Amino acid sequence: MSQLRAQIADRIRTTGPISVAEFMRLSLYHPDYGYYARASRRTGRAGDFFTSVDVGSVFGELLARQFAEMAAIIGSPQSRIPTPESPQGSFDLVEAGAGSGRLARDVLDAVARHHPELYHRVRLHLVEVAPAARAAQMETLGPHSSKLVFSSDSLPERITGVIFANELLDALPTHAVVMREDGLREVFVDLKGADGGVAEFVELEREPSTPELLRYLAAVGAHLEPGWRAEINLEAPDWIRRAACSLRRGFLVLVDYGHDAEELYSATHSAGTLTTFQRHTSGDRASSLQDPGEHDITAHVDLTTVAHVAESAGLVTLGRLDQTYFLLGLGSAEMLDIRPVDASTSLRVDGEARRTIGPTALRQRLALKTLMLPGGLGSTLKVLIFGKDVGRPTLKGLSYRIRLT
Fold first, then answer.
1. Torsion-angle region of residue 52: left (phi > 0), alpha (psi -120 to 50) or beta?
2. Distances (CA, A) of 111 to 60, 64, 126, 253
3. What is the mean pLDDT of each run of 10 residues along the chain (405 residues)?
4. What DSSP designation does 43 have?
5. What is the pTM of this model?
6. DSSP 155
7. From CA 163, how far away is CA 250, in angstroms rounded?
8. Using an 8 Å Cβ cutoff, are 43 and 54 in contact?
9. What are the helix (H) ranges across 39-125?
10. Backbone dihedral region of 389: left (phi > 0), alpha (psi from -120 to 50 degrees) or beta?
11. SS3 for 319?
12. 286-330 pLDDT per residue, tens
């Protein structure tokens, strides 16, 4: 029995069944044995799942274009009021859920190459809960390590610039509920058996642990039919409020798996969206209870609530769209063209010269297709952009503004 499994079992024996949210918190975020604390490589071919960062540096390069435009909108260094947190001339770039800093490295590579003036102003803040990942950030950043001014498990205070989070909210601990004929029940994790063997984690339905769950469903107008399951993420709204408070002036950019509440709490997702990932294989909710700390656990995000909470906290919704349309607005289609440097070679076929795609250009094309194809990352990942004290600018990434599928 793993250390984490034993600890969770002992806790249940001592205090009784725990909510799925608490089980998920321990499985993912336990400081010593949680998935995010111990997995040295969680994504990519060697990990358990793919993210937009794993297909190459092109995602970071496109983000750099958007961040540069945002920096220009916020204003020149001379137009800024300096604070101790954001000195005169600086531009704060905050990545939440930053891991070892791979995406930040890709972004800074592109900013240094294409926006040298902005690069000199950037102050990088990386927010990551896993100590091991934070310890690797300086090495990952390499030549950009001097840009890192803040590395912590919580958001910095009063920044002017951009707060960015890629696939963060879907990994926050979430409550699981099921509707029965006599009302809403919350799903808890209990123990079954123990005499002479290893106890098994099993589901147990009980009265909701907090009235907030019922209030949440009522607020989004969700009407669950008997037998429907769903997830209710109470931590995502709290995180949005903290981000809005941290942002003095600038933008909040979120990329995550999610749906509007009307779809999320409908027959389409009546079995819920809680999923595990291990070695690129997804599992059902039963597998999420086995081997805590050994696999990722996620649930789709309620985009309706995220937007409502952001606006209530003083942010302005600037756009919501599929990742495909966001990247198209930033010029991803142009990047599909073959570039002159290492772009192509000549090949003679029947005496006629023809162009073939070089290895670098080919890798870039494949990466862009992975990021943008419908049914893959392009349509399943949604981009939400909010502003604070920046008006309602027309951003390149929001050329399609509201395009959700």
1. alpha
2. 9, 6, 17, 17
3. 88 96 95 78 45 71 96 70 61 96 96 97 96 93 97 95 96 97 97 71 96 98 98 98 98 96 97 74 60 89 98 97 91 62 45 51 54 57 96 92 62
4. B
5. 0.84
6. P
7. 8
8. yes
9. 58-74, 102-114, 116-121
10. left
11. strand
12. 566 878 988 889 999 999 999 999 999 999 999 999 988 999 999
Residue 225, CA distances (Å) to 37, 179, 260, 272, 287 in order? 38, 6, 18, 12, 25
pLDDT of residue 282: 47
Q: Tell me the two tokens of residue 44.
A: 């990519």
In angstroms, the CA 368 to CA 324 distance is 10
Q: Which tokens belong to 242?
A: 């903290």
Dist CA 369 CA 392 (whole Å): 30
- Report DSSP letters for 164-232, one per residue: EEES-GGGS--EEEEEETTEEEEEEEEEE--TTS--EEEEEEES-S-THHHHHHHHTT--PPTT-EEEE
Residue 321 carries which DSSP code?
A: E
397 — phi, psi (to 5°)?
-65, -15
State the alpha helices, DSSP H only, in 44-183. 58-74, 102-114, 116-121, 131-135, 137-141
How many Å apart are CA 296 and CA 283, to the nearest integer?
10
Structure tokens given for 110: 């592109």
Task: Please give the structure tokens belonging to residue 228.
Answer: 């429907």
Q: What is the pLDDT of residue 39?
A: 52
Separation of alpha carbons 372 and 349, rounded Å? 33
Give the H/E segment covering residue 317: strand 316-322
Residue 101 main-chain phi, psi, to 5 deg? 100, 20
**What distance in Å separates the CA atoms of residue 44 and residue 34, rounded to the nearest whole number?**
19
Does an H or E element contain 185, and which?
strand 183-192
Q: Look up tokens 């942010």; give the residue.
A: 315
DSSP 223-235: -PPTT-EEEE-SH
- Alpha-carbon span 193 to 13, nearest angstrom: 11
Take residue 129 and report the two structure tokens written for it: 């809960």
Burial of 1 (0-12, 13-18, 19+ CB in 10 A): exposed
- For the chain, give the mean pLDDT: 84
